[in-house]
Every structure is written in structure tokens, then in C-alpha cells.
Amino acid sequence: MKVLGIYGSPRKGGNTDILLDEALKGASSAGAEVSSIRNCELSISGCLECGGCDDTGVCVVEDDMQSVYQQLLDADVIFLASPIFFYGITSQAKALIDRCQALWCRRSLEKTAEERKTLQGGRGYLLAVGATKGSNLFEGVQLVAKYFFDALDMSYEGGVFVRSVEGKGDMAKHPDSLKQAFDLGVSAVAGSKQNA
């Protein structure tokens, strides 16, 4: 069982990092092989919409994203973590997601429209932290996550969403949310094992 965590924050050690750390600890405690990608350490350009992947499912842009594709494809469970910037995910995380257009093309080339109705690549989860209390704070990011995971042939299974957290490290003041993330890591692995 392979679990991949994507640290989408531009700030190391911030609140979403703390939340994702807990989810990955939970997954590890359940016996998963855990690895991670830290967006802020990678050089990933946005999708150029050049059409280079249309007929092959392979991105032609040569940058750090080339080392990410196989990790995404190998994972049984993916946790995407991002703070909320203007009711969306960070530009670092969005660049990675947009570059998965190649994987969407690959999926379209390998499966018929009918076959694409069934998601067989695993399970995806979103961890998001926002400073405000807005009732719609996580709606946009959940749609992005859903279709990101869809491109990976994975189902979107929800996640952990925490409001009113802004100062670096303030996530530590929310033990219930940290426990929720840990428990999600455990249950994500258990759920994937049952579906295997």
C-alpha cells in the first residue's frame, strides 16, 4: 500500500504541513509505505496547453514535474494539502494539478468513455486550512481536488477542513483537527485495503 502526501504550501512547517504530517503518521501507523512531494522545493511550470500530450498522454515540458508523474501513478492513496489563498489552492499546488492534463489525456487514450465512469486508480483526499470563517471557504478547492483525482483515475473521498487558522504553527492549537487528520490517514489505508 503506497500513500503519497503532497505538501502544497509555499511555507515549510506551516499549518497545512502540520495537518498533512498527522495524516501521513496515521497512514504509516496502519502499515502503509509513505512518501511525499513538497511543491515549494520543485520547479514546475504551469500547463502550456501546447497539445503535446494529446496523442501520447505524456507531457513534453521538461522540468521537475517529470519526476512527479510516476509517484502519482504508483500511489494507492494521495493526500493533497493546501492552505486557502483567495478561496483557492496555492499556485504551487495548482501548477502540479494543471500539469496532470497529461494524465487525463493518458486516461482518455487508455479507457473508453464508459470505462472512465469507474475510478480504479485509488483514493484521494484533501486537507485544507483557511484563515477565515466563510461558509463557502472550501467549496472551490474541493471541486479542484475532485477533478485532479479524477484525472488520476482516483475517487475523491473528502478530507479535513479547518477554518480560522492563520498564524504559522497555530494548527497545533487544534488537537481535534489533528486527531481527525491522523484518523483519516488510518482509515484511508484500511479502506484501500478493503477495496483491493
List keywords for this structure.
alpha/beta; five-stranded parallel sheet; Rossmann fold; 18% strand; 196 residues
**Share of residues in helices:** 25-40%
Q: What is the CATH third-level topology name?
A: Rossmann fold
Number of domains: 1
Radius of gyration using CA atoms only: 16 Å
Taking all residues together, what is the mean pLDDT? 95
Secondary structural class: alpha/beta
Question: What would you call the quaternary organization?
Answer: single chain
CATH class annotation: Alpha Beta
Q: How many strands, what sense, and barrel or not for the largest sheet?
A: 5 strands, parallel
InterPro entries: Flavoprotein-like_sf, FMN_Rdtase-like_dom, ISF_SsuE-like
GO molecular function: oxidoreductase activity
Protein name: Flavodoxin family protein
Keywords: Flavoprotein, FMN
Q: What does the secondary structure layout of this molecule look like, with pairings?
A:
Layout: E1 2-7, H1 15-29, E2 33-38, H2 69-74, E3 77-83, H3 91-98, H4 101-110, E4 122-129, H5 139-151, E5 154-162, H6 175-195
Parallel strand pairs: 1-2, 1-3, 3-4, 4-5
Helix pairs in contact: 1-6
